[in-house]
Design brief:
The chain is α+β, with helices and mostly antiparallel strands and 743 residues long. It is built from 15 helices and 40 strands. A hairpin with a 2-residue loop joins strand 7 and strand 8. The mean pLDDT is 93.
């Protein structure tokens, strides 16, 4: 299989999408083209041509909104030389969104889904010599107008209506973490793929069963086989990891074969903190007359996964994640769009995964309002032992239940899952984000949603049957609807109370008072977040000159705080904060750090609590938000606070009513003696058990005091601190005790 890249320089024409009828050949009336780069986005090309200003500065991104009604025509002239008549396809890894494709004036295909890879035959169209590729991308907003909308096609944001039938990131129509940017472009690779007479088209490999010292795998191989090779091929599958090897050989008599290799004494893949993320080098070969005629190589981790959730709610309800039969205490973050323009995503993959790992996370959730990342992202998670919970790209809306839309989702699901299913880091698929919530908010039962209850489940049963599937997050079971739902929610207080029994929840009811978190009893929290400010450097770079922390007119497109406003959190937590921009920025960042620290540490000392996934890891635009990392890569104080609180073995201190309870939380197999030194006490040795929470001591302490701890375990010293307060913190004293550091 040979690939010939068609990335690089293109010509881009922009035209009125309402009155434009293109035949793939003539360009009269389209005006002068703009130099474009693929992979790319049209807006970025216009920025490079100085036809748009810096869209990340001030509210300039709104100056690109006129493009929503335009069509875009990408043109590439290229030379192609060949000396055989093998089958060839034009492959497009990502086009946003509704498009048609012409090669040398012949229409070869069309697409309607930015999440899906498309391939079109170019046999008898591709020429030996000069060729012209034309990609015509239609206005997504104009396309959305052709659909009929029912009273129940609703969502949480204004832009939801035009997004409901358009398969591109929901957040691109505007969200609370990103400004509206309904982009267009060829944002991933384009190439011509040549096929040999025998080609392995896809391989599925999964851990079927782990029992004692044996792993049973399922390997399914599909191939394109020319008639002269049918019945003459042998399938050979080999795998090696450290000293472990396996081989499976059998006849390959048709175009598909499923086998079940046994691996004795397998080396297992584990998430961070529970073992090494070991990967097998797996090679799949088709052999004819002793010669390899087709081959695929895969990195694969042998592991079992079980999502232990219940239909029950309340005390008897549960939500747990097991890997290789071990309960994993989840320490996670939500992954949201890396950029408003997705052609820029890939350049940040390595930095993001490295940052998540160094934050002591073992879990990342791919949020359903964004995008399925390119394969490299998941390979990095495989290598670094980061579990991936993967939503399908459906978020916060009541989506159409028409046959046309259900077919779109089925096609998308199959395409995406077949591309990503061999990554061991992906531990579960999830049907959507907060779509059940939309149903219950207006008194309806979400268990009738055909998308999350039928369509996705059926596709997964066929193409990825050994990976857990969760219908949606949060999931409102029939038991929940029977006991707590079936009503139109009146206000926030009613929502908070009715949802209290959910085992797994998105906990947003704390917005102005994170101390209320102690009242919840969920077993797992998939979303929770607190707003904090960007760095001074980022603000000076992206806000208008003379910006003021409290004046909204400077923050257009750059402030979507989780709380009511940028000062809400710091007013809630601190007394004595000054009025200067510098002080307000610093206090905002400190508030965010203290809020996240409180939530994480109060969670970890609860024996019944199985995991938390914080919202969100990194900004996709320079913005005041809940993120730990700013758009330019600035790690906020909250990053370092959570990194510390997420330490696998940590001393966690809880202050209430003049008393400090000292806990040693151990999420590892280590057991033995550790050394604990508190700033107000002498060092002592403590015996701890594996995977345990130990109340080691209780001491008296006053308000607005700082206690530090040093925990010596396994040759490593882990530090932590507690600033004692019941309701408010004296910010002047806090700054003095903490050194006013930004870490």
């Amino acid at each position: 299989m040979n690939k010939i890249s068609l990335n690089g320089n293109y010509k881009l024409y922009i035209t009125d999408g309402k009155n434009f009828n293109f035949d793939g050949v003539g360009f009269n009336g389209l005006g002068e083209p703009v130099d474009a780069v693929v992979p790319g986005n049209a807006e970025l090309d216009l920025m490079r041509a100085n036809l748009l200003p810096d869209l990340y500065f001030a509210d300039n991104i709104r100056k690109a909104e006129y493009l929503e009604s335009k069509d875009f025509v990408y043109v590439k002239d290229f030379e192609f030389n060949y000396d055989n008549d093998c089958h060839r396809e034009l492959v497009l890894k990502g086009v946003d969104t509704i498009a048609e494709y012409y090669l040398n004036g012949v229409k070869i295909g069309e697409s309607e889904n930015a999440f899906v890879e498309y391939g079109f035959s170019v046999d008898n169209v591709l020429k030996n010599g000069k060729n012209r590729l034309v990609v015509h991308i239609f206005s997504s907003v104009n396309h959305a107008k052709k659909y009929e909308y029912t009273p129940l096609n609703i969502g949480i944001y204004d832009g939801c209506y035009e997004s409901l039938n358009i398969r591109k990131p929901a957040s691109s129509f505007g969200w609370d973490i990103l400004p509206r940017a309904v982009s267009a472009g060829i944002f991933r690779d384009v190439y011509i793929q040549e096929y040999s007479p025998v080609e392995i088209t896809n391989v599925y490999i999964a851990t079927n069963r782990l029992v004692d010292n044996l792993a049973i795998l399922t390997v399914s191989v599909n191939a394109r086989v020319a008639d002269e090779f049918l019945g003459k091929l042998t399938l050979k599958i080999t795998g090696k990891c450290k000293d472990s090897e396996f081989v499976k050989t059998c006849p390959f008599t048709f175009t598909s074969k499923t086998v079940f290799p046994y691996v004795e004494n397998p080396v297992l893949w584990y998430p961070g903190g529970y073992g090494a993320p070991d990967l097998y080098d797996v090679t799949v070969e088709l052999v004819a007359d002793g010669k390899v005629v087709a081959q695929k190589s895969i990195k694969f981790g042998i592991r079992s996964v079980d999502i232990g959730y219940t239909e029950e709610i309340g005390e008897n309800g549960n939500f747990r994640i097991f890997v290789n039969n071990k309960l994993i205490k989840v320490k996670g973050v939500n992954h949201t769009p890396i950029d408003v323009y997705h052609s820029k995503d890939k350049e940040k993959y390595a930095d993001i995964v490295d940052g998540i790992k160094n934050m002591n996370c073992n879990f990342v959730r791919i949020w359903g309002g964004g995008i399925y990342e390119d394969d490299e992202f998941y390979s990095l998670c495989d290598e670094n032992g980061i579990m991936v919970w993967h939503d399908f790209m459906l978020a916060c809306h009541m989506y159409p239940q028409t046959k046309e839309f259900l077919d779109k989702i089925s096609f998308e699901c199959k395409n995406v899952v077949e591309r990503l299913r061999n990554h061991p880091s992906i531990i579960a698929w999830c049907g959507s984000n907060e779509t059940d919530w939309m149903y219950t908010c207006i008194g309806l039962n979400p268990n009738g949603d055909k998308i999350t209850r039928v369509v996705i489940k059926d596709v997964l049963s066929a193409v990825d049957p050994f990976r857990p599937f969760f219908p949606t997050t949060p999931y409102f079971s029939n038991e929940f609807i029977k006991k707590q739902g079936g009503v139109f929610y009146v206000d926030l207080a009613e929502i908070t109370e009715r949802r209290r029994p959910l085992p797994e929840e998105h906990y947003w009811w704390h917005r102005n008072d994170f101390l209320k978190f102690i009242d919840q009893n969920h077993k797992f929290i998939m979303e929770i977040g607190f707003g904090g400010c960007n760095s001074q450097e980022e603000l000076n770079k992206y806000l208008p000159k003379g910006w003021d922390f409290k004046d909204d007119k400077y923050w257009n497109c750059h402030s979507y705080p989780t709380e009511d406003g940028r000062t809400t959190g710091l007013d809630y937590l601190f007394d004595g904060v000054g009025d200067s921009n510098e002080e307000l920025v610093s206090a905002s960042r400190a508030y965010q750090a203290e809020a996240y620290k409180y939530i994480v540490e109060r969670s970890r000392i609860r024996p019944y609590f199985n995991g938390i996934c914080l919202w969100n890891y990194r900004d996709g635009f320079p913005i005041f938000s809940s993120a730990f990392v700013g758009y330019d890569g600035d790690k906020r104080p909250a990053y370092f606070a959570v990194k510390n609180s997420y330490e696998p073995v940590q001393c966690i201190m809880k202050y209430e009513n003049g008393k400090v309870e000292i806990y040693i939380v151990n999420d590892t197999p280590f057991e033995g003696k550790v050394g604990l030194k508190l700033s107000n006490a002498s060092k002592k040795e403590i015996e701890i058990k594996a995977n345990d929470i130990l109340l080691a001591d209780t001491v008296s302490c006053g308000e607005n005091e700082l206690i530090t701890s040093e925990l010596s375990v396994g040759g490593k010293t882990v530090k932590n601190y507690l600033y004692t307060y019941s309701r408010k913190i004296d910010y002047t004293k806090y700054k003095k005790l903490s050194g006013n550091k930004d870490e």
